[in-house]
Write a structure and sequence with these properties.
about 160 residues, alpha+beta, Immunoglobulin-like, 2 helices, globular
Length: about 160
């Protein structure tokens, strides 16, 4: 009987969480910039700046973010941050997430570039979740093209379809 009550309570919490999340539109997340950080060993480190847009009528508070970045269809980098803040209702904010790129990923991309040099930029896919929004965690997905300026510096990314 005790186990049944626990399961019923868990089901009720899950149902309420699902109901609360039903009216929430998906966040729009795009890469806003990339800056180099000091690296260690066989890893490269970058500060990935994300522009997070909230198309909802309520502000969304967050307490942490985790993401995976794929480039040219292959896994490239991952990152986490315990950043806290709020995305205003019908507003946006920029969140900086440190990401790590393994040497193997760099070599794989370099080989890909030598075989097929990018003409218009490099396609990326971003998947992640924003934690602690009051609705649990909100997952996001984004894709676009990273465009490179002179001297190998990334230019402002251009979202896909633009």
């Amino acid at each position: 009987m005790k186990h049944l009550r626990i399961w019923l309570a868990l089901l009720l919490v899950a149902a309420l969480s699902a109901c609360a999340a039903l009216g929430v539109e998906r966040l729009r997340v795009n890469v806003a910039g990339i800056e180099s950080l000091s690296s260690e060993g066989l890893e490269a480190r970058f500060a990935l700046k994300l522009r997070v847009q909230n198309p909802n009528d309520i502000a969304l508070d967050y307490d942490g973010i985790a993401l995976d970045l794929s480039v040219n269809g292959a896994p490239f980098a991952s990152g986490v941050s315990n950043a806290k803040g709020s995305v205003p209702r019908f507003g946006e904010t920029v969140i900086t997430v440190p990401i790590t790129v393994s040497a193997l990923s760099v070599v794989r991309q370099a080989l890909s570039f030598t075989r097929n040099p990018p003409k218009e930029g490099v396609p990326y896919e971003l998947k992640g979740r924003l934690a602690g929004t009051g609705l649990g965690s909100l997952r996001f997905e984004s894709s676009g093209t990273l465009r490179f300026g002179g001297a190998g510096e990334p230019a402002a990314p251009k979202p896909a379809g633009s």
